[in-house]
């Protein structure tokens, strides 16, 4: 299992992307190292149990969430940007640290009471995860927690998610 230092060495920092003042944490170099994705997915899944669905947020949440679903014995559901899902959807709009955005979920993706785990690569301000929680709760799901590869702790995303349990592999101060 890679250590936190091993993983941080594989994550590329890109300053001023997507706009000035933002430090983007690029996980694509980490994904190219054989065995690392499987190890990270296993580590991210380990704290969770009794999950019906893993919900991955577009797009790196798909990469991390899909391999987490198998060891959890859960299904996988994507939450996508508008116009990307081919069937009827429900949508939510939200603010994020550098603008606004929207997310969609198929209307039949979750059943009332299903226990879902939300997965994404980065927890920053919590805007995207918070919107996903609201979208899933509107669809009738029970959000059991959120799992992130990394957290930008000073941005307060964990606090923005309220009482929802959060687990992260790496935290950036």
How is the main sheet built?
5 strands, parallel
Q: What is the helix/strand order?
A: HEEHHEHEEEEHEHE
- The total of helices stands at 6
- In whole angstroms, the N-to-C terminal distance is 23 Å
Instruction: Report mean pLDDT, rounded to a whole number.
Output: 95
Q: Please, how many domains? A: 1
Could you say which structural class the secondary elements and strand pairing correspond to?
Answer: alpha/beta
Helix content: 25-40%
Q: Taking Cα atoms only, what radius of gyration do you get, to the nearest Å?
A: 15 Å
The rough form would be described as globular
Strand content: 35-45%
- Residue windows where pLDDT falls under 50 for at least 5 positions: none
CATH architecture: 3-Layer(aba) Sandwich
How many strands in all?
9
CATH topology: Rossmann fold
User: So what's the CATH class?
Assistant: Alpha Beta
User: Which strands sit side by side, in order, in the main sheet?
Assistant: 4-3-7-8-9
Task: Write structural notes for this entry.
This protein has 173 residues and is an alpha/beta fold. The protein has a single domain, classed as Rossmann fold (3-Layer(aba) Sandwich). The chain has helices at residues 4-10, 28-31, 36-45, 60-72, 127-138, 157-160, and strands at 12-15, 23-26, 53-57, 75-79, 89-96, 99-106, 115-123, 142-152, 166-172. The strands form 3 sheets. The chain has a 5-stranded parallel beta sheet, sandwiched between helices. Strands 1-2 form a two-stranded antiparallel ribbon. Strand 7 (115-123), helix 5 and strand 8 (142-152) form a beta-alpha-beta unit. Helix 3 (36-45) packs across helix 4. It is globular. The two termini are 23 Å apart. The mean pLDDT is 95.
